[in-house]
Amino acid sequence: MPRVIAIDGPAASGKSSTAGLVAEQLGWAHLDSGALYRALTLAALDNIGEGWSGQKILGLADELPVRLVRVGDVFRPEVAGVDVDQAIRTDRVTRHVSALAAIPEVRTWVNTQQRRAVEASEGGVVVDGRDIGTVVFPEAPLKIFLTATPDERARRRLSQRGEVVDVELVRRESQALAARDAADSHRRIAPLKPAPDAVLLDTTALTLEQQVTRVVELARGLFPG
Questions:
Q1: What's the pTM?
Q2: pLDDT digits (tens, 9 = 90+) for 31-79
Q3: Which of 206, 195, 209, 196 is nearest to 21 (CA)?
């Protein structure tokens, strides 16, 4: 059994923030699977444009290359040897990442990179994404599926961007998140859904500290010492 905690959930449910803090409290590494999909999307947009195919994207990934590099206790996305952790968070990348992530060959490649990264790491790894507990690490001893209402997730997303949170903005962002949820949940390959043995954690009324505490408590019960 790998020392892996799988944290899944829809966009803006707090997966990456929670996973990062859980890893920090446990002294484990953190791998954000979305960062690799976003790095591939950035590379494709910059080098191919929007007329991409799985074959072109994977050829580019090997040529540049696109990869995960462990720096301390965090896996950092790099494109052609450059840290792109900030560059992949733009709206431009966000608009296209779901379409790229729906390509079967791309998902297979990303899953392979994640497994290799974890296998090569010492100690435990907290991995977050949308299919970590169902596809990438179905054998993970602890699987968490975070949820929150679309409106709450919209407020969080707007706050992260530093935008003024008002009713109209929340409505528009909530609709956008709901559309992405539908796309991710109904895609043919690796749809967004909780693993049968995942712990469901609704974070709508929880602070980040509270949800981190809950996951850490579960982890310490399974991984003593």
A1: 0.88
A2: 999 899 999 999 999 999 878 899 999 999 999 999 999 999 999 999 9
A3: 209
